[in-house]
């Protein structure tokens, strides 16, 4: 019988034999794959120092066609002639869908350019990327600073908040970066210009989508406004994608990572995206804005689902949802009802009726204070009481040792309840009806004869049984009474 090692070697030989054939059979397929890979750029051949090899969206024909259509549509104005037709068949809706897809591509392209700018400018100011997170703000700041080492000579007012400007200026004074070369600086500034151009194109696309929101999504626009509705659709990738999205994700669309630069987080709103730009959100008190944002996101999702199936082209459902949001927010702001002073009860001179009856009497007798406890709680004037320790520090006996015969135990009288129970027990017969008890015996022990035989039933029923003991006397006779007329 072959060993385990021999079986493993045999399996390896079979595998090596089978591997020879697929190499010859797949030679043609491998050649086809090599031909197909010629169209894809090789990763090693990509030049990341060149911006054109990284960012290619602005040179595509699709980008130019959509931007040209958007400009023509903005100049022509809004046309609602096809409002009653099916939404998917409207060419303007198809352009809006293309604009939403293009806005997503522009956003991804801006992120790619932002990574390119960070890689280049990291040599000059490595701490800037941790202070300014937004790609467009970062590109504007980089273009404004350039190769300047002293940021006191650079005016960043309007580009960043004043608190961030102060932190950037302090950090730049202690940075370990060095000025960039002319070539790297030129590439970095070119990348910043391209990012700003893409951002302007994205705003133009969103303006076009916003101008058509009254026709595409009237209910959603009634709740959040046309501008916010276009941003939500652009970020989600269309009205259909927005309708399929849960409300918790709609709330986060457009949320940015906020850098507070060490300042307090008490006044900052986290996990809020484009919905914070709505009129309802801004009119809500700060303490209720988190709840209001969740409510607006939920109602906006419902409105987007209504618009996706053209359920209400007039926008009446959206206005009703907006009114419901406002009523709920007003309800939240109402003060709690004041506590009314509770009046005192009417004084009653009559004593209140207390529970009585057999159960209460039994409970009172069960927990009644005994005579012994009454004596233990009583003391005579001028006579010291005895205690369990004998020195007056233990448990005192009161008048227990001084009353009556001087005994410690005082015989308590039988209570009324105990006497009543004993009387009832004595009156009750526990024998079986007409049958001899199993405990009775015919043997009797007497001091004279010792053991004698006796009839146990003779003593139990001395009058006999039947009608003799019940109705008739054994000694009496019937009397004859003469009838008188």
Let me know the number of strands: 2
* Helical fraction: 40-55%
Measured between the Cα atoms of the first and last residue, the distance is 138 Å
Strand content: under 5%
Give the number of helices: 20
Strand order of the largest sheet: 1-2
Biggest sheet character: 2 strands, antiparallel
Overall structural class, as computed from helix and strand content, comes to: mainly alpha
Describe this entry's structure for a reader:
It is a single chain. The protein is an all-alpha fold and 485 residues long. Helices cover 50% and strands 2% of the residues. It has helices spanning 4-25, 27-36, 61-76, 91-121, 128-131, 135-145, 162-173, 182-211, 213-216, 218-224, 226-236, 239-244, 247-250, 279-282, 289-308, 316-333, 358-366, 371-376, 416-427, 456-460; strands at residues 443-446, 450-453. A two-stranded antiparallel ribbon has the order 1-2. The longest helix is centred in the first third of the chain and has 31 residues, at 91-121.
Name its key features:
485 residues; mainly alpha; two-stranded antiparallel sheet; 20 helices; elongated; RNA binding; RNA-binding
């Amino acid at each position: 019988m072959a060993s385990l090692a021999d079986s493993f070697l045999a399996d390896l030989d079979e595998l090596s034999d089978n591997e020879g054939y697929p190499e010859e059979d797949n030679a043609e397929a491998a050649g086809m794959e090599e031909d197909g890979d010629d169209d894809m750029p090789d990763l090693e051949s990509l030049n990341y120092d060149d911006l054109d090899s990284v960012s290619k969206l602005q040179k595509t024909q699709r980008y130019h066609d959509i931007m040209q259509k958007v400009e023509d549509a903005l100049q022509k104005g809004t046309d609602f002639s096809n409002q009653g037709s099916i939404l998917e068949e409207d060419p303007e809706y198809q352009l809006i869908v293309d604009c939403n897809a293009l806005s997503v591509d522009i956003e991804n392209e801006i992120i790619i350019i932002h990574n390119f700018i960070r890689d280049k400018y990291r040599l000059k100011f490595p701490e800037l990327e941790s202070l300014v997170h937004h790609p467009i703000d970062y590109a504007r700041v980089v273009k404004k600073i350039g190769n300047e080492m002293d940021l006191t000579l650079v005016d960043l007012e309007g580009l960043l908040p004043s608190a961030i400007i102060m932190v950037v200026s302090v950090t730049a004074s202690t940075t370990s970066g060095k000025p960039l070369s002319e070539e790297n600086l030129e590439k970095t500034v070119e990348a910043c210009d391209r990012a700003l151009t893409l951002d302007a194109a994205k705003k133009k696309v969103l303006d076009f989508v916003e101008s058509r929101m009254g026709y595409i999504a009237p209910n959603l626009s009634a709740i959040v406004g046309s501008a916010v509705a276009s941003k939500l659709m652009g970020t989600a990738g269309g009205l259909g994608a927005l309708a399929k999205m849960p409300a918790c994700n709609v709330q986060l669309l457009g949320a940015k990572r906020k850098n507070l630069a060490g300042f307090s987080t008490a006044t900052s709103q986290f996990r809020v995206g484009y919905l914070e730009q709505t009129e309802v959100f801004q009119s809500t008190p700060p303490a209720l804005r988190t709840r209001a944002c969740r409510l607006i996101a939920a109602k906006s999702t419902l409105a987007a689902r209504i618009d996706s199936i053209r359920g209400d082209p007039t926008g009446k459902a959206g206005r009703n949802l907006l009114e419901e949001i406002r009523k709920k927010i007003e309800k939240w702001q109402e003060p709690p009802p004041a506590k009314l002073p509770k009046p005192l009860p009417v004084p009653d001179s009559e004593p209140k009726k207390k529970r009585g009856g057999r159960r209460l009497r039994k409970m009172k007798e069960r927990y009644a204070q005994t005579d012994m406890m009454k004596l233990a709680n009583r003391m005579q004037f001028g006579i010291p009481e005895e205690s369990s320790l004998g020195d007056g520090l233990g448990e005192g006996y009161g008048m227990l040792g001084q009353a009556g015969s001087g005994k410690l135990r005082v015989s308590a009288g039988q209570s009324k309840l105990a006497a009543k129970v004993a009387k009832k027990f004595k009156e009750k017969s526990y024998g079986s009806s007409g049958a001899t008890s199993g405990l009775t015996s015919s043997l009797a022990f007497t001091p004279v004869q010792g053991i004698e035989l006796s009839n146990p039933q003779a003593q139990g029923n001395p009058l006999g049984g039947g009608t003799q003991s019940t109705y008739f006397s054994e000694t009496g006779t019937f009397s004859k009474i003469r009838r008188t007329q």
